[in-house]
Amino acid sequence: MKTDRQTDKTDESKTDRQTDRQTDRQTDRQTDRQTDRQTDRQTDRQTDRQTDRQTDRQTDRQTDRQTDRQTDRQTDRQTDRQTDRQTDRQTDRQTDRQTDRQTDRQTDRQTDRQTDRQTDRQTDRQTDR
After folding, report:
1. Nearest-angstrom CA–CA distance, 38 and 40
2. What pTM, to 2 d.p., does this model score?
């Protein structure tokens, strides 16, 4: 049979093991919680960074597109205006030239007719004499 001393030692040993197990469990739980928190924080940071980068890229692309469109519109307008001006000038010049030529022809014809008439009259007069 066991002596009281032996029983006490056995009980103490049991208690020590139990306490050790509990302490180990608590320590494990605490370590697990801390690790989980750290992992969560790190993951959150990474996700935030990625989201920020992606959002920045999208915003940059959109801004670039808008700027490009606006610049294109302005350039198109300017080019259109310039082309219109040039076309108008050319058309005006051509029209002016044609009108001038036509007028010159008509004037020349009239002058020629008058001159011819006068010459004819004079010739007729001289012949009549």
Report:
1. 5
2. 0.46
